[in-house]
Design a protein that fits this description.
The protein is built from 14 helices and 9 strands. The chain is an alpha/beta fold. It has 2 domains: 5-152 and 303-320, no CATH class; 160-279, no CATH class. The strands form 3 sheets. It has a 4-stranded parallel sheet, with helices on both faces. Strands 8-7-9 form a 3-stranded antiparallel sheet. β7 (179-181) and β8 (187-189) form a beta hairpin. α1 (5-16) crosses α4 (78-94) and α3 runs parallel beside α13. The longest helix has 17 residues, at 78-94.
Length: 321
């Protein structure tokens, strides 16, 4: 989002004045809205739901949520999402007659990421405090859910949710099965297990993770005993455990643990591609695949291992009370 104060204020006011938010849960999420800031019509804001993050979250809404579904708004990066959340509350409080928003129905979801993020005027002062309250091991903690209006992903980035092992059947059944680009010209059918090993092997190549290792690894150390001296040592031990593991559920847990500290975005964007004969562009292909992934989550929203749909299901139940 632009740093222009006028554009930011206009964006916030446009959300408040949208009749579509009346009586609904509103969820702010990350996503670039730069292309829509120059347009001042409500129609431009309808396009936001087709942006990547909002598109995925909307696809994850539980199948049972058929009426008064939540409204999603992309608000830029993580810091801007938080800034927008608090600005909306302030603007509504200052002039509730000029707002369709119910502040009790306002929520935000942001990537956990590595960089520390302070939060002011909230019950939790950092993103990591939210994380440790919201998650119990690999699952959402349903007992703490009601404490939160700002949610964080259980994986580093939302793209981690595009690559969990449980999606293998989705990929296998997709009309144009995903391929893995190992070079500029070579494409092979996606091998998830090989991808996870590569992600682990390259763990110590992530300078951002190296710089923030001491505050990132506690996200998983409470439920996964390992050598946390540095990412390299963790990688070596994690790969050994995974390669020796024969139990499917345990191996899945190990991969979820990796995704909690490994950025998946670069692998999704740089390596996951359509078959060589796919007639359209890569982004169109990925958008279609994301919708299929979202359908998987929407049909499994009762499982706290699947963080995003479970949080949405919890909001649905909260709304019905």
């Amino acid at each position: 989002m632009s740093s222009d104060p006028d554009s930011f204020l206009h964006h916030c006011q446009s959300i408040l004045k949208r009749r579509a938010v009346f009586g609904k849960i509103v969820i702010l999420c990350e996503g670039n809205i730069q292309n829509y800031e120059s347009g001042r019509s409500p129609q431009n804001y309808k396009k936001q739901v087709r942006m990547a993050d909002a598109n995925f979250y909307n696809a994850c809404v539980p199948k049972s949520w058929t009426q008064h579904r939540p409204e999603f708004f992309t608000c830029g990066g993580r810091g801007n999402v938080l800034k927008t959340y608090f600005e909306l509350l302030k603007l509504h409080e200052d002039n509730p007659q000029n707002s369709y928003l119910n502040p009790d129905n306002l929520f935000a979801i942001v990537d956990c990421d590595f960089t520390p993020q302070e939060i002011f005027d909230y019950i939790y002062s950092t993103i990591d405090e939210i994380f440790h309250s919201l998650y119990d091991g690999l699952k959402v903690n349903p007992h703490n859910f009601k404490k939160h209006c700002i949610f964080v992903t259980g994986f580093v980035h939302k793209e981690g949710y595009f690559l969990i092992p449980e999606l293998k059947e989705v990929f296998d059944d997709f009309p144009e099965r995903p391929h893995y680009r190992s070079s500029s010209v070579v494409r092979n059918l996606l091998d998830l297990q090989g991808l996870y090993l590569r992600m682990a092997t390259e763990l110590d190549q992530d300078a951002d993770l190296m710089n923030h290792w001491d505050h990132v690894h506690p996200r998983i150390s409470s439920h996964f005993p390992c050598d946390y001296t540095n990412p390299k040592q963790f990688s070596l031990q994690w790969k050994k455990i995974v390669q020796e593991c024969q139990d499917i559920q345990t191996k899945s847990d190990l991969i979820h643990t990796l995704l909690a500290i490994r950025k998946a975005k670069q692998y999704w964007e740089n390596y996951i591609v359509p078959p060589p004969d796919y007639p359209l562009d890569i982004q169109t292909y990925r958008d279609s695949l994301i919708l299929a992934i979202g359908r998987f989550y929407s049909e499994n929203s009762d499982n706290p291992r699947y963080h995003i749909p479970f949080l949405l299901r919890s909001l649905q139940e909260l709304r019905s009370q």
